[in-house]
What does this fold into?
Amino acid sequence: MDSHRIAWLAGLYDGDGCFAMDNSYQQSLGHKRLLPKVHLITTCRKTHQRVMEILHELSVGVHVVHRENPQPSKVGKYNSWAPRWDIVVAGMKRVRTLLPHVLPHLVTKYEEAKLLREFIESRMSGSLRGPYTEREHEIHVAVGALKTKRHLS
It folds into this structure.
């Protein structure tokens, strides 16, 4: 894999991507489930195609939602936005596959990605279905806090 293509992808994630942890109640587990997720929205078909090519070459599984039509706004008019592709890498194994490639190139979202990596390593070394450790809860809170604090420094 060409390192320039990976650096380009990392730059796109650094500027327009989102490194986060979904928090939802999972009845089968009997507690909340924290799910690492890397999300990117593109409005350019060529950019979308390039992202998908690179992720495929890296063997990263993705979920893509393509939205074409404008959605009615609350006041009954239509918002004018371009067609878009939501590219989502979600889950321990998928995010774990992506992170080693993009992490060295990140600047703005480096800390968030590093925390996701720590969370994944912690879960993968223990029980994926067991209760979360105190540190794993701290990571979840820290990732959320970085979304607002990183712009203050």
